[in-house]
Design a protein that fits this description.
The chain is of the alpha/beta class and about 325 residues long. The chain has 2 domains: about 160 residues, Nitrogenase molybdenum iron protein domain (Rossmann fold, 3-Layer(aba) Sandwich); about 140 residues, 3-Layer(aba) Sandwich (Rossmann fold). Strands 7, 8, 9, 10, 11, 12 and 13 form a 7-stranded mixed beta sheet that branches. It has a 6-stranded parallel beta sheet with strand order 1-6-5-2-3-4, with helices on both faces. α5 packs antiparallel against α6, α6 packs parallel to α12 and α11 packs across α12. The longest helix has 21 residues. It is globular. This is ABC transporter substrate-binding protein. It comes from Rhodococcus gannanensis. Belongs to the bacterial solute-binding protein 8 family. Its main location: other.
């Protein structure tokens, strides 16, 4: 059993690491618009000084805003709402005086093309999204479209690639590189400050309904923590996987019993996790080496958003918790 989309995406977030060599920056097109999907090249889109950008992909709008180009419309995947401009609290101020129209989440990738057309966009961002050529074809009839590199699994684009693609398309390549560098530099600093993290096994698990799961290398949650020195708990690699998420059957819940763990929830209150007898039976929980986060916890939300800015926000709060947990490893 796996959680449904978009609920699963709200917590999984994203971001399987992958080789992103695409055959070209601009795919062939019969209209004046084109599809941009190669982060290694910088397209010349000749956008106006203040382009009208519609952000449809997961966290695409937050990244654009952090680069100084707040979108006029955002698909609010994580249901942040109008109070924070459809993004997490760490990025609200990036919009300045711009108040984007929020497109409420429906079924994943179910877009109202007439609505999008009425926004009169200069550019459409649909990068961290479902790979669907029909959707792309419909969008490029409206405006140029930025998508993930060909062959990328659904919603599973590495956060660095996503950032660079969007930055390139907006004519903000240097700013995109700076955003990425600030985050990777922070990871390196935290790793150097916490040598006790090196080599310790780690798992990020989730409880949803009566089932469990674990995030895999390639997901922003796991990869961000791994950059601090932690390594994958071997039993997780033996589980049945789906993209960047592994199902954990009840009889294999010990696959979550790493030296250090973060446990979160999907579609249920934190109390259901805290009172779960199987989670509480694990040594990592009994020994105080597990960090438990509800899905509405800002740290969990920031890790799910998986942008340079959100990851820095999450690391500031999560690293001290990881240090406490790691100190209890015998």
């Amino acid at each position: 059993m796996t959680p449904s989309t978009p609920r699963l995406l709200g917590v999984l977030g994203l971001a399987a690491a992958l080789a992103f060599a695409a055959t070209g920056c601009v795919q062939s097109d019969t209209t004046e618009n084109a599809v941009y999907s190669d982060p290694s090249e910088t397209p010349d889109l000749s956008l106006p000084e203040n382009p009208r950008v519609v952000a449809l992909g997961w966290s695409d709008g937050e990244i654009a805003a952090s680069l100084g180009v707040p979108p006029i419309a955002i698909y609010d995947w994580m249901s942040f709402g109008e109070a924070t401009n459809g993004v997490g609290e760490w990025a609200t101020d990036e919009f300045g005086d711009t108040t984007p129209v929020l497109i409420p989440p429906a079924s994943a990738g179910d877009f109202n093309y007439q609505q999008i057309k009425e926004f009169d966009p200069d550019l459409i961002l649909n990068v961290r999204s479902k790979a669907d050529s029909k959707v792309t074809d419909s969008l490029k009839e409206i405006a140029p479209v930025v998508t993930a590199p060909e062959g990328t699994p659904d919603y599973a684009i590495n956060w660095q690639v996503q950032t660079q693609l969007i930055a390139n398309a907006l004519g903000k390549s240097a700013e995109g590189e700076q955003q990425i560098t600030e985050t990777t530099d922070l990871q390196a600093t935290l790793r150097a400050q916490n040598p006790q993290f090196a080599g310790k096994t780690f798992v990020w698990g989730a409880k949803f309904g009566t089932a469990y799961g674990a995030y895999l290398p390639g997901d922003a949650r796991f990869d961000t923590i791994a950059e601090l020195g932690f390594v994958e708990y071997p039993p997780v690699s033996d589980l049945q996987t789906q993209g960047f998420f592994a199902s954990v059957p009840v009889e294999k819940v010990t696959a979550l019993d790493a030296q250090v763990a973060v446990f979160s929830t999907i579609g249920m209150p934190l109390a259901d996790l805290q009172n779960d007898p199987l989670i509480n039976s694990l040594a990592v929980t009994r020994d105080g080496r597990a960090i438990e986060l509800g899905e509405d916890d800002p740290i969990a939300q920031a890790m799910s958003a998986g942008t340079p800015e959100s990851l820095r926000f999450a690391l500031d709060g999560l690293t001290p918790m990881l240090a406490t947990a790691a100190s209890k490893v015998q």
